[in-house]
Amino acid sequence: MRPNDRALSRSLNIADLRSRARRRLPTPVSDFLEGGAEDEATLIRNREAFSEWGLVPRAFRDVSQVSGAVKILGQNLEWPLIVSPTGGAGLFHPDGEIGLAMAAAATGTLYCLSAMASRSIEEVAQSTTAPKAFQLYIFRDRGLTRELVLRAKAAGYAALILAIDVPVPANRERDKRTGMTIPPRFDLASLLAFARHPAWCWNTLVRQPVKLANFSDMRAEPGTTLLNFINSQFEPQLSWADLEWVAGLWGGPIAVKGLLHGDDVERAVAAGASTIFLSNHGGRQLDAAVSGLDMLEQTAERMAGRAELIVDGGIRRGTDILKAVALGASACSTGRVGLYGLTVGGRAGATRALQLLRTEYERDMALLGARRQDEIERSCVRRLR
Length: 385
Ligand SMILES: Cc1cc2nc3c(=O)[nH]c(=O)nc-3n(C[C@H](O)[C@H](O)[C@H](O)COP(=O)(O)O)c2cc1C
Fold this sequence. Notes:
It contains 16 helices and 12 strands. By secondary structure, it is of the alpha/beta class.
């Protein structure tokens, strides 16, 4: 057995993959993956919120056949966990976004490609025939925004995910300390951290250098790098008219990612969104923001089936998905889970990560006494504190 295969087979859960991933990355990169904004209160909250709920199993049910199948954004998924968009996945393994897309396809779910990916819209579209979604930011340059929407449409993406929670870059102090900023500002300690990981340096800087693949044909303003240019493109003046504009351009299933307030969910659905990611961007944007799970029950009651609600942030176990579904989620979504697996073993590692969670989820459904998603009822979950 190759060392990587052994590392994967010995990883019994997401926490095991996470600790192996941390060891494989230079500290600045692993802090970039793990970190959140400011005090990281929201990052911590994303996990804590799940521990506040307990499951109440049902008895005397034939659970010899269970299925977590759901339809989200018009796509039939074999289980309710979507792979969230994460920019620059090539930082973690040369397989990057292609590895993640293939892992999602292999485990029966939907992959969302980030606009900030290290592989292009077209390359990822060709990597698998399974349906994929494209995550867009509205950039200051609306021509550039429009071009991305049209490229995703031409490449056959099944759904568009509009992320709205980066009106300005966040304050991630871990990254400032390690120099993972735009432009990078590494000190001696960071450079030594890279030097301790020659394999990572070879793969990421030489073999398959990480880039912002969707913008590689673009020329930045004179005197700026492409990274600086894209960073200056975040749009602080978003309006609901922008969502209507994008929905009209796209003309297919569209989700808004990064909402937490019920009024905004209502408004986004009125503007054409079928699906809402209740998300705080994995604790990486506004610190002290509530978690998606915190807002789920009341949003589900208010929307009463008028929108697909996806909880994103802190999912690490099959039981987390069960809790979210019982509280009204149509599905969940995760960023770091796929990235931990990708770091440890590329495409095979990302597949292992997703398969571990899928197996947990289906086993947990049986243990809860639920054969289908609609049997995971509100009464199956109880607040503990
Ligand atoms: C390294 C990293 C990069 C990310 N890049 C993006 C991105 O480009 N677009 C986006 O909408 N969200 C991005 N996110 C947020 C994820 O889509 C998702 O909301 C978050 O990871 C969910 O939390 P979890 O990692 O605890 O599952 C990123 C998250 C991480 C960890």
